[in-house]
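Notes from hallway chat w/ T.B., transcribed later so I don't forget. T.B. wanted the structure written out for a chain they're using in a teaching module, and asked if we could keep both sequence and structure tokens in one place. Agreed to drop them here.
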Amino acid sequence: PAAWNAEPSATWIRIVEKTDNALLLTVDDNMSAAERTGEVTITAGQAEQSITIVQVSDHALQSTYGTTGEFTMGAVISPNARYVGGYTCIYDTEAGNWVNQVVIIDIRNDKKYMLDPFPDTLYPLYDPCAITDSGNVFFHCEDGKIVMFSLSGDVTVLDNVPGAGKPWLSQVASDESGVWVGWCSGGSTVYSPVKWTDGHPEILPLPETTFRGAAWNAGAMARGCSLDGSIIYGTAWEGLDSGLIWWDREGTPRWVGDKVRKLKSVKIYDTATGTYTDYTLVDGIVGSSDPYYMSPSGKWIAGTYRTEELAENETDVIYTSCPAFYDTETDEVHIFSEYEGAVGMTVTDEGLGVIGMNGASGIISHTVMVNIPTATEAGTSTEWIYDTYGIIIPDNSLLEYISPDGRTAFGYDLSGEMEPMRKWYVTRKTAE
């Protein structure tokens, strides 16, 4: 029947609005030290249904779960996990063009900043690349530009780097450091790693030779950095090589885990010409464009230890991969060979690492936590989030970043029922 009624079982539950098909409830503050439970009973003729309401105590720290399913190309999180930023893109049938709107979320209070929309002919946004702790969000554009939007709506287009060309931003450090990192498409090599300090660019040096010990041609890209911007990491980009590089506090470049990097000269048979060609196989630590590999202090760098062997036919190369974590302070490499086919994704200063299972094939199935110093598993990331934050999130949620204070986790959903490119965050609220 159309007529229905709702009745709360406790005085601390109050009905503030009732319409034909909706019910709005509110609750009084729970000032006790224990959680409490109540019910609202819905009746409509002979039908009856109850809604259970559980209210935690005033003394409990609460966690919240948020998603960015409405964003067009994912989202980025600021270094200290204050802001998440992205954009939406909707087609305007009357104007006959796509309209972009930048959205920035303050995850401390879930406040959304919806900046003024604009046609994509003005700034053809592609995807977000970084956001600062003051809410300045950077986007890659389809025309090759990097554009920054502030919370107040001010827009800045990054200038070309002298001698290196168009900039491409990868990550930012804390606001106090004023450091951004990325790369430019030009310079002495095709790509040049760049560090900006208070807006002033500096082209970073490369290791003496490439990942395979040859002369540089394509170059490398800076991908991420420590919270204070003093330590940077990046990847080579010679052919299909993506060897992980890091720059120490003095700016000296070296290969991540160089002690396990081994070069092996072989001759590969070319079936087209029937001749042999000299080739260098290399075992070492590789990475990708991920901006979250480094722990906040720069102590740890996550990566993937990859080995290469020449197949019996002397033509193909056989690759094996497993997660690896490099300690920049001790020069030690922690290789988790038992997780073959997995990759290292991120790591905390305490040595809690995140492993992406099956990531070497390009599609991560789920994420697992490991304690690096003890070489022990700490469960799946969803189990860890429940144990740490007391909140249940979907099993297909992949963890890719943990904030420096440990209060926030950030990641993305697998494709399927979830929206593509959907990012999520779990944050523990601070007691007032």
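Follow-up for T.B.: The longest helix spans residues 381-389. Might be a good example for the class.
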